[in-house]
Amino acid sequence: xxxxxxxxxxLDLADCRFLLSRFMPMQRPVGVTAIAIIxxxxxxxxxxxxxxxxxxxxxxxMRLGAPxxxxxxxxxxxxxxxxxxxxxxxxWGLLLLNNLARRAAxxxxxxxxxxxxxxxxxxxxxxSVPGLVWGGLGVIVRVIIAWYLWQRPVADAFxxx
Length: 161
Hints:
mainly alpha
């Protein structure tokens, strides 16, 4: 009787482990969560600027969005809101371990590096230390994001869903 009860408990534990591994998603890497937070913060910043520009036109300079939108700031507050929605969508997809969101985040980060080249080059030519520091920091963060999201263990976490 005791052996039968022991076998039944072990069988139940095996069933629980199978169900948990089947229906519970893989643990999200900490770096992915951090990158999703960066996307959410950027989206909140752009949405706040866009909403403020719509509520009180002329109150804020459109150049406040330049670190994230570059020359697209000239398109107006709707471009701020559009990019905020895209950033929030990418952040949400990263939290859900959506592989398309991982690729989109890496591409957005790589495009951000390309868009920062003129700013960093201009800072070097004019010897603007603050511009060089902020531009360089922007490049570094974007390169780290793109590099991290293409690492095999991180990509595997997205594939197992």
